[in-house]
Structures are given as C-alpha cells and as structure tokens.
Amino acid sequence: MNPQNPPWWQGAVIYQIYPRSFADANGDGIGDLQGVRARLDYLAELGVDGLWLSPVFRSPMADAGYDISDYCDIDPLFGSLDEMQQLIDEAHARGLKVLLDFVPNHTSDQHPWFLESRASPDNPKRDWYIWRDEPNNWRAALGAGSAWSWDEPTQQYYLHLFLPQQPDLNWRNPAVVEAMHGVLRFWLDRGVDGFRIDVIHCTAKDETFADDPRCLAGLPLSDFNDQPYSHEILRGLRRVVDGYPGERVLVGEVNIRSTERVLSYYGAGDELHLAFNFTPLDAPWDPILFRTCIHDVQQWLPPAGAWPTWVLSNHDNPRQRSRYRGSLGAAHASAVLLLTLRGTPFIYQGEELGLLDAQIDAAARSDPGGRDGCRAPIPWQAAPPHGWEGAAPWLPFPPEADSRAAELQRTAADSTFALYRRLLAARKASAALRLGGFEELAAHPELMVYRRQCEGDVRLICINFVERAHACPHGLGWSVQVASDGAGEGQPFDGTLRPLQAVLLRPHED
Ligand code: GLC
Ligand code: CA
Q1: How far is the centre of ligand 2, averaged over its atoms, from the C-alpha of 10 (Å)?
Q2: pLDDT category of residue 509 using cuts at 50, 70 and 90
Q3: Which parts of 79-188 are beta strand (E)?
Q4: Which residues participate in catalysis according to the annotation?
Q5: I need a labelling partner for 398 at 20 to 30 A (CA). Which of 7, 117, 252, 367 fits?
Q6: What is the pLDDT of residues 30-65, one digit of tens each?
Q7: Could you tell me which of 28, 16, 98, 111 has the C-alpha nearest to residue 72?
C-alpha cells in the first residue's frame, strides 16, 4: 500500500443495501435487483462511493438469504445473473463500487453439497461439513438452541452455529477451500470490487470440540468463537483477491465485541483490508461510551497499520434513531460523527432518511432472530403505497413513512437526506476528512471535540451528546461548514453547541 496513493476503499463511504427491503421493481412486494438499478441515481446523488448488497444468491430464505443453496446464481426472487451484471456495469458507469456478501461459514441445508454430505456417511462430500457422533454444549445463534442437529438416516449430528438450515462448512477440508475460492473468482471475474465476508471469525472451529463455559451461560458460540485457523482461511481468501487487478477489497464481519481481537483479523496486511468493529453498534448516544470505543480504535488499529471502519447500524441491529430513544437530533449528530471519524464509514439503507425501526406484531415477524424492525421497506413516495406498487411489501413500513419518504427529503433543504448529502460532499472534498490524522482535544465530558488534518487541510468536529447547550471555545475562529441541525452553516462558529448539535468546522480563510 502506497501512502501517497491510498487504495480507493480508504477514502470511500459504503452504503449497505438490504435488497429485500430496498426497492421493488416487479410488484411482488420484495425488493429486487431491478429495484436497485432504478435507484442508482439516488445513491449517486446522495454521494456514496460504493454499495454492498446483502445476499441475493439462490436461497430457501430460512435466514433471509444468508442460507445459500447456490453461490454462483441469483435467486429468482431478486432477478437473474444478467441483471446482476447490468447492475455492476451501471454502478461502475456512475463511479460506484459494488461489493457482494460472501457467506463462507455455512451453506443452506438445501445446497447440493449438503444434500450429498447427508446422503450417507461414506459420501465423498461427507467431510465437507462437520459431523460428530456426540454433540458438545455449543449453542447456535438466532435462538436455535444446540448447535448440533441429529440426522436420523445417517445417525450423526451436524454442526450449525446459526439455524439448523445453515450447516457449517468444514474449512479444514482442502476441497471446500478450493470450491469456495472458486466462488470468489466467479464474482471477481464479473467485475465486483470486493466482498463483505459474513461471520469470518466463525469459520474455524476448535478441533478438540471442547465444551465452552460461555455456552453454558447461554451465549451462542458465534458471539466469541475466535480460532487461530480462521486466519489461515482468511489468508487464502486474500491471496485469491490479491490475484486480481484493481484493489478489490475484503471487508469482514468480525462479530466479537473486542476491538483488540478485531484487530487480529487484519493480519500482517495479509488478511482483511477492513474489519467491522461493532462496539459502537451497541452503544447508546453517550459520550463516555463513544469516547471509549473511539479510543480503543485509535489505540489498537492505526499503530498496527490497520484502517478502521465505522458502523452504527446494519440489517441485524436496531436503527440509530431507535437506539437513541427516537431522537432525531441524536441521529443527526451521529451522522456527523460517522462521516467525520478516521476510517471507512458504512451507512445502512434508510439511515439517510432518519428512519425508525418498524413496530411489527409477533404474528407478522419473519426473522427467527427477531431482527425485522430495521428491515422494514424504504418509503420512496410520501403517498401510500410509498413507491411499492403491486403486492404489499413483505414487512410493514416504518413509522412516519409519509413524512420521511425519500421523494420529500431529496428536495427539502432541512431534511436528514440533505444533511447526509452535505456531509458526504464535505468529506469528498476534504483530504483531512477522508484520510487525515485524528486528534482528540480536551473538552467537557458531555462533548467530543476532534481535529482531522492532512497536510494543510484541516477540520474540527465538535459533538454535543446531551440535550443542553454547551460552550465549546475550541471552535472559536472557525466557520461552520456543516451543522447537524443546519444552523449557522457558512458563518463563523459562535462558540456554543446547541442541545444535541454536532458541527463540522473549517478554518475561516478556507
Ligand atoms: C451475519 C449476518 C446475519 C446472519 C448471520 C448468519 O451475522 O449479518 O444476518 O443471520 O451472519 O449468516
Ligand atoms: Ca420484486
């Protein structure tokens, strides 16, 4: 990596698309690839640099597509291979990168590999999955109980760290490694710019299959599984990707709440390019907690040459505003934080509209893990059916679907969308924000103040986490470039942060 010429993904902002809920083009109530294609201009207008699509591959949909039965084909629900190629090409034509979701830990139980594996104990693919005569105490995620399911015909248990319909692959088998490398090549050959890798920390298991006391305490193994062999698996994936021109990127989901452990998945520059660090995903809008997560990142990642990522929401967790007790002010301030920290930010679809989670009756829930609220469909138009013509969408709309609709927010200067657009434009135009150093300045404990600098380019960011005004003398002598509430933009900063206000400041003479 050449510091003078950093790879594109260091300066980029990536937008996560959850395709089922993004936009529906054929009126069956489920978002699809044509729906995404039709909204590429929206993403370009917002000003993001790339998109990551949650899985769109063939799947029985036991875990909404994270249970894949063919890695190299598109599920008819979402479209076709040709449509995916068009989407990649049209995104590229707008300067947008495309990342796909690579799910290496498990397949669907309907994947032909697993159908063969379970056909008989001496099937050549038996060892592609993890079969044992006796279970241990490992627990599955998504409320699935034991991580072992009994297969009556062949009289053994198979391992699944998630649903029983998601059997875990055996990555110690070289044939599995080769087949999965082939999956990466299939998509790299079609021009994708990289992959988000699902639960990479889960791929290697303790070979002794020892009971784990943390599972006794009720936690799923996937919350902490962290075996050395995962790094070997990852180095193999990295070699495949590095064999392609054009700075393809691997972004890994390391779903362990320890920044220090997350760091290990960058390897020695030979594993992940970017690792998700989820500690801020759980944090309420609290200065102490945020300062701690940010300090942890500063302490561990940059000294090791690892480029940070920032994620405040995704398809598995409540939305920012819902986590911040419904506060739009906090959601807006968090957008300033997300887009001005040092590292690559990820925006989950709908955050740019300030959406809340949908309230969904038990009967209408579709996810075994109870994550439906943040997966509600995007309201495009103010009037029902909010741009979802035809069958009703697969989940109900979020609250305020009329007033928060994208159509209204695109033209309103004081909208959440407009704030994101201003922040993204400011970031694009400033080397300090994209690539510069990070220095925190001493401030009142309810504030966070930091400086970003790259050679002569400098910005100051002041964030008020609480609902009362605070003096912020650091900002005197600077101009307000972007304010989370729009107040005073283009004018000298008056030294006061309003309740829950966050400001991006630039030097006067800039
Ligand atoms: C990841 C995905 C989640 C999925 C799980 C199993 O955590 O983000 O949606 O259920 O892996 O694939
Ligand atoms: Ca559809």
Answers
A1: 33
A2: low
A3: 97-102, 131-132, 148-151, 156-159
A4: 198, 253
A5: 252
A6: 999 999 999 999 999 999 999 999 999 999 999 999
A7: 111
Kindly state whether residues 355 and 459 are assigned to the same domain: no
Domain residues for the domain of 145 are 112-159
Rg (CA), the chain: 23
Ligand showing the shortest atom-to-Cα distance for residue 201: 1
pLDDT tens, residue by residue, 62-86: 999 999 999 999 999 999 999 999 9
Contacts of residue 363, Cβ cutoff 8 Å, sequence gap at least 6: none
Atom of ligand 1 nearest to the CA of 162: 6
pTM: 0.98
d(CA 482, CA 426): 8
CATH code (residue 129): 3.90.400.10
Q: Which of 426, 453, 477 is the last residue of a domain?
A: 426
Reduce the DSSP state of residue 166 to 3 states and report it: coil
What's the pLDDT band for 312 if we cut at 50, 70, 90? Answer: very high
> CB atoms < 10 A from the CB of 155, how many?
10
DSSP symbol at 214: H
Q: Which residues line ligand 1 (CB under 6 A)?
A: 63, 66, 103, 162, 198-199, 253, 255, 315-316
Query: Is the C-alpha dihedral spanning 109, 114, 120, 122 positive or negative?
Result: negative
Average pLDDT of the residues of the chain = 97
Alpha-carbon distance of 149 to 142, in angstroms, equals 15
